[in-house]
């Protein structure tokens, strides 16, 4: 896990594991939507999720192009965009994939304003 808003494409023509910016035709729209979410999130907007084992990982403005972060061949985000014209971003909301129940109220507080801002844009 991490704390970042990721946008298409997640796959790249080279399939290198990481570091390839895979730009879609709607790249600016995706960046705008991802930044909208990230800019309202107290951790995401810093671009430094500080996840255990990945303390040096950074995401400018709290966003990343999926393939630049890590290549995912055949992912749902790309499939839906290419074949159904669905504009999706992927939200990584926690360093922990399954946070304990006791942390859920804090996660809600961290994401409430981001969700509302995102809904307003959509």
User: What would you call the structural class?
Assistant: alpha+beta
Sheet-strand content, in percent, reads 5-15%
CATH superfamily: Zn peptidases
> What would CATH call the architecture?
3-Layer(aba) Sandwich
GO cellular component, one term: extracellular space
Region (Disordered): 1-20
GO molecular function: metallocarboxypeptidase activity; zinc ion binding
Keywords: Carboxypeptidase, Hydrolase, Protease
Outline the structure in words.
This protein has 122 residues and is of the alpha+beta class. It has a single domain (4-120), classed as 3-Layer(aba) Sandwich (Aminopeptidase). 36% of the residues lie in helices and 11% in strands. It is globular, with a radius of gyration of 14 Å. The model has no long low-confidence stretch (mean pLDDT 96). Residues 1-20 are annotated as: Disordered.
Compact summary:
This protein has helices at residues 27-39, 66-69, 76-84, 104-121, and strands spanning 2-7, 63-65, 90-94. The chain is α+β, with helices and mostly antiparallel strands. Strands 2-1-3 form a 3-stranded mixed sheet.
Features of this protein?
carboxypeptidase; 3 strands; 3-stranded mixed β-sheet; Peptidase_M14; globular; Aminopeptidase; 122 residues; protease; alpha+beta
């Amino acid at each position: 896990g991490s704390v970042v808003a990721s946008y298409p494409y997640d796959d790249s023509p080279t399939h290198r594991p990481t570091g390839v910016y895979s730009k879609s035709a709607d790249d600016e729209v995706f960046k705008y939507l991802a930044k909208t979410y990230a800019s309202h999130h107290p951790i995401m907007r810093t671009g430094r999720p500080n996840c255990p084992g990945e303390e040096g990982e950074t995401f400018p403005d709290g966003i990343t192009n999926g393939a630049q972060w890590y290549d995912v061949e055949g992912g749902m985000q790309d499939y839906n965009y290419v074949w159904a014209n669905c504009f999706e971003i992927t939200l990584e909301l926690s360093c922990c994939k399954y946070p304990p129940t006791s942390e859920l109220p804090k996660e809600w507080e961290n994401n409430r304003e981001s969700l509302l801002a995102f809904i307003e844009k959509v």
